[in-house]
Design goal:
With 291 residues, this protein is an alpha+beta fold. It has one domain: q2cbj1_9rhob like domain (Jelly Rolls). Helices cover 20% and strands 25% of the residues. Strands 2-12-7-14-5-4-3 form a seven-stranded antiparallel sheet. The protein is globular and about 50 Å long. The two termini are 26 Å apart. Its cofactor is Fe cation.
Length: 291
């Protein structure tokens, strides 16, 4: 197992290079250091950390090993700094370049791993392994992984299997409270492809394909590990059925400067936070006994 390859950028003038796009297409992800500058990161952090508006909506999903992967999820970007981030050219516009056409905001998650082993694992899966079940016919979808806190091996950093997006969709089943890919196929893929730890600093970013196999371990450190994960669907891939995430909704993009200039820290109207009881792909009632 080794570290993921890394690209640098100018966060005030981000440009998706041909090399970055090639990495996404070949490896299933592109890791960009310093994607958010200090002002952008602090403005986003102020929204999610300095108010209770997000914290009060967090719920836990069992990992089957005694821990919980805690999160809150919203359908539409809204007008707070997290919404400006999701609507910005360097996030939404880059997603369009990687997917080859207009995108819309599928949802954003705030993932919260509490310290000292309380923050549980996120087991091996592909996002499209369950988005497929939502009526999305094609894997024309991606996510971004943007740390609010440092992500290291000891606090459950992201792990990926490089190139696994080329394997296509793998069958998934509900294990404890989460979706997990078929174990036999997982082991076969891991025997063929590189397993990478993606250690990241706050403000770094990973764009990753919806068929990339990924997971994260429990947080065994003394500090929290919070991450924002915006997800996008290509407009032409409008789901065939109504479900707990949005169907096609036009995305009104904003300039990157809106991330640092936004001062709306308390009005979260229009975001439509998910009621976990309506999510058919997880189970918030699952107990914490081993799976």
């Amino acid at each position: 197992m080794s570290a993921a390859k890394v690209f640098s950028c100018d966060p005030k003038n981000f440009v998706l290079t041909d090399e970055m796009k090639q990495a996404y297409e070949e490896d299933g992800y592109v890791f960009i250091k310093g994607f958010l500058d200090k002002e952008e990161l602090e403005n986003v952090r102020k929204t999610v950390e300095d108010t209770d508006l997000f914290k009060n909506r967090v719920y836990g999903v069992s990992d089957g090993k005694g821990g919980e992967s805690r999160l809150t999820l919203w359908s539409h970007p809204g007008s707070d700094p997290t919404g400006m981030l999701a609507r910005s050219e360097k996030v939404a516009g880059t997603s369009e370049k990687l997917l080859g056409g207009e995108v819309y905001h599928y949802h954003t998650k705030l993932m919260c791993k509490d310290p000292r082993g309380v923050g549980g694992k996120h087991i091996w899966h592909q996002d499209y392994g369950y988005w497929y079940k939502n009526g999305c016919l094609f894997p024309d979808m991606l996510s971004l992984f943007i740390p609010i806190d440092p992500c290291r091996k000891e606090n459950g950093c992201l792990q990926v299997i490089e190139g696994s997006h080329k394997c296509g969709r793998i069958d998934h089943d509900l294990v404890a409270g989460q979706q997990r890919c078929n174990e036999e196929r997982l082991q076969e893929v891991k025997a063929k492809l590189p397993h990478k730890f993606v250690e990241m600093d706050p403000g770094d970013c990973l764009f990753f394909h919806c068929n990339l196999l990924h997971c994260s371990d429990s947080n065994l450190s003394e500090t929290k590990r919070w991450v924002l994960i915006p997800a996008y669907n290509k407009a032409s891939n409008n789901p065939t059925k109504i479900h707990h995430h949005p169907c096609y909704t036009p995305l009104h993009k904003v300039p990157d400067s809106a991330i640092r200039d936004c001062r709306n820290y308390t009005d979260l109207s229009g975001k439509e936070f998910l009621d976990p009881k309506t999510d058919k792909t997880t189970d918030v009632t699952a107990n914490k006994s081993p799976a």
